[in-house]
Design brief:
Number of helices of chain A: 9
Largest interface: A-B, 45 and 34 residues
Oligomer: heterodimer
Order of helices and strands of chain B: HHHHHHHHEEEHHHHEHHHHHH
CATH topology of the largest domain in chain A: Rossmann fold
Helix content of chain B: over 70%
Number of strands of chain A: 10
Radius of gyration of chain B: 22 Å
Structural class of chain B: mainly alpha
CATH class of the largest domain in chain A: Alpha Beta
Distance between the termini of chain A: 34 Å
Number of strands of chain B: 4
Number of helices of chain B: 18
Order of helices and strands of chain A: EEEHEEHEHHHEHEHEEHH
Strand content of chain B: under 5%
Strand order of the largest sheet of chain B: 1-4
Structural class of chain A: alpha/beta
Radius of gyration of chain A: 19 Å
Helix content of chain A: 25-40%
């Protein structure tokens, strides 16, 4: 079995007295797609923020390929290969769609020693950015400001930025939330494509059960900040505690 | 890839995706301003006009470097005149205490610019990670301390009176660049080729070089990162940019540009005092110039500086002429009295902000985008 690419040990963060994530230990291997489920407020996004560096844990450690990254800044973690798409669309609103993606490509590949050249002179970077826009079917909108895109396209751009980072660990936080039935498959096909590559670690927060069944190799269930179940999808979904959490609470996303 | 395809890769903000009718008008105006500044000593023969032209050159650098901070990166600083003053006082002390030669001018200038850069690194690293409001407060405090220092360290800075000094011989009015048969300065188109002319072109060329460098920075990949930080700091960090490092770097670049403008200003005026460099009035002027011209446009700085400088220099003349012309009419001559000029300047600002909400350059570039 391959070594875990990302691992959290006893990860805890408290806001005041409330532990939003409480002693979560789990490890994820390359080639594996894990779906993280749990009701609203279970700590899924907070756990994501701890791993990608937006929050610093109160206790516990985070390891990337066995190296402790608990104290690294978000930018250093991005450089270390952890890529994150956000739940709430989080773009550069007044920059063009192409410029948004180009920034991510530029962060990944660098601009070399001749930094004073005009930005448009970096044709390799622009070509890569355009390729990512083709993949996410945004090429026709390249020159529009990101803020002018409809919601579904903004979600796609969010994913395009993540692709452009070329990470080893892909973290998707509800990538299809609010997308139409026509648009969601574009994103899900993309995720399936990354999974097929076999070398990437994929973490996915998702509510829609059909998505979970179609993609998941493994399911992790968070509840009140604690990890309550972890394992193969069929086994986890059959557990009484999971049925209780899910059936005892109203479903959050009827659109599925 | 063809040139047109490369052009399409350019849009840094949506506004300048392709040239608009307003954009063409804007760049025509800038070209005219540039030509007038280039030939200012030949076009305007009087001393006062040349003074206004030199002031415009220096303030274009000040406003453009401030735009790099506030317009491109979203950093609000009130320490820009402090860096301006450090360059000016550096050059002034070199010339005053060292001697009126190139060596001491260079020594003082490099000292002043380096001090500004070091101070900018310190302020940046210590405080650019805190909230924007706190950073603005820190710069305000630093600027105030520098003003107190300048007025208290009388032996070094001349206190409130400032420093008066001579410039290198090349810039003295009596200097003849080319002599004619009578032993006087030769004339070109009626303008004597003397030290005053050399001094103006020293100011013009240094300011042009700094402005071109600043304009290249905002066009470079670094410029795009700065805009990204302004737009969404957290996401810029999340895709791998060290926001604090970039902010500090741009703060230092802006400080160095302001200090160089200070050096040029000190040489031009042959005098450096708190009122010509450090005063808070100048800080407000710079801020207004950038807002009027258009934040985040770089070329807007030129427009803003020209509008402000012309208003500040010639509004009084215009008003006394108007007051004279309307002397028979009741009330009007009183309203148009030259002493009321700040009233009209204020009215001008309000009108500009109403009709050019994104600044003159910013609004013009969007105009006619549907054509």
């Amino acid at each position: 079995m391959t070594a875990p690419s990302i691992e959290t040990r006893d990860l805890t963060i408290r806001f005041g007295g409330h532990a939003a994530v409480n002693g979560v230990s789990c490890a994820f291997r390359p080639g594996e797609l894990t779906v993280i489920v749990g009701p609203n407020g279970a700590g899924k996004t907070t756990w994501f923020n701890l791993v990608s560096g937006q929050l610093t844990p109160t206790e516990g450690r985070i390891l990337k390929d066995g190296v402790d990254i608990t104290r690294l800044s978000p930018s250093a973690r991005a450089k270390a290969g952890i890529g994150r798409a956000f739940q709430l669309t989080n773009l550069f609103p007044r920059l063009s769609v192409l410029e948004n993606v180009r920034l991510a490509v530029q962060a990944r590949h660098g601009i070399g020693p001749r930094a004073f050249r005009p930005a448009r002179a970096y044709r390799d970077i622009a070509a890569l950015a355009r390729a990512h826009l083709e993949t996410t079917r945004l090429a026709a909108l390249a020159d529009l400001p990101a803020a002018a895109l409809p919601h579904g396209d903004q979600r796609k751009l969010e994913v395009a930025l993540l692709l452009a980072m070329e990470p080893d660990v892909f973290m998707f936080d509800e990538p299809t939330a609010g997308m139409s039935v026509d648009e969601a498959p574009v994103i899900l096909d993309l995720i399936a494509g990354i999974k097929k590559d076999g070398r990437k670690t994929i973490l996915l927060v998702e509510h829609k059960m059909d998505v979970v069944r179609a993609l998941a190799d493994r399911i992790v269930v968070l509840h009140n900040g604690e990890l309550v179940a972890d394992g193969a999808p069929d086994r986890v979904m059959a557990l009484p505690i999971v049925r209780e959490i899910y059936l005892g609470l109203p479903p959050e996303d009827e659109a599925a | 890839m063809t040139d047109t395809a490369a052009e399409r890769d350019l849009p840094s903000t949506a506004a300048c995706a392709r040239p608009t009718a307003g954009g063409v008008a804007l760049f025509s105006v800038i070209a005219v301003i540039g030509l007038l500044l280039l030939f200012a000593p030949f076009v305007f023969s009087d001393v006062r006009s040349t003074q206004v032209a030199a002031r415009i050159c220096v303030f274009v650098v000040l406003a453009a470097s401030y735009d790099l901070l506030i317009g491109y990166t979203g950093i609000v600083s009130f320490a820009h005149t402090m860096f301006f003053g450090m360059g000016a006082y550096g050059a002034a002390m070199g010339l005053k205490f060292g001697g009126a030669d190139w060596g001491h001018l260079l020594l003082g200038s490099v000292g002043g610019v380096l001090a500004a850069a070091v101070l900018a690194v310190l302020i940046g690293l210590l405080s650019l990670r805190v909230k924007a409001l706190f950073f603005a407060m820190v710069t305000l405090a630093a600027g105030s301390v520098m003003m107190v220092l300048a007025s208290q360290l009388t032996s070094l800075t001349g206190g409130e009176d400032g420093l008066v000094y001579s410039t290198p011989r090349l810039f003295k009015p009596a200097m003849k660049l080319v002599t004619n048969a009578d032993g006087e300065a030769a004339r070109l188109f009626g303008v004597p080729l003397d030290g005053r002319l050399a001094l103006y072109y020293f100011v013009f060329i240094v300011c042009l070089v700094v402005f071109v460098l600043l304009a290249r920075i905002v066009r470079s990949p670094l410029g795009t990162v700065l805009e990204a930080i302004r737009e969404n700091e957290l996401r810029a960090e999340a895709i791998g940019y060290r926001v604090v490092a970039y902010r500090t770097a741009v703060f230092v670049i802006a400080a160095v540009a302001a200090a160089v403008a200070g050096v040029v200003w000190a040489v031009w005026l042959r005098y450096t005092g708190p009122d010509t460099t450090l005063s808070f009035d100048i800080m407000i002027d710079i801020l207004l110039m950038v807002v009027i011209g258009g934040m985040g446009t770089m070329y807007g700085a030129i427009i803003g500086v020209v509008v402000m400088s012309l208003a500040q220099s010639y509004l009084k003349d215009l008003m006394s002429a108007a007051a004279g012309a309307t002397s028979g009419v009741p009330i009007l001559p009183h309203l148009l009295d030259p002493d009321r000029w700040p009233l009209w300047l204020g009215l001008l600002f309000i009108l500009l902000v109403l009709f050019f909400p994104a600044g003159i350059a910013g609004t013009l570039m969007k105009k006619g985008s549907r054509s």
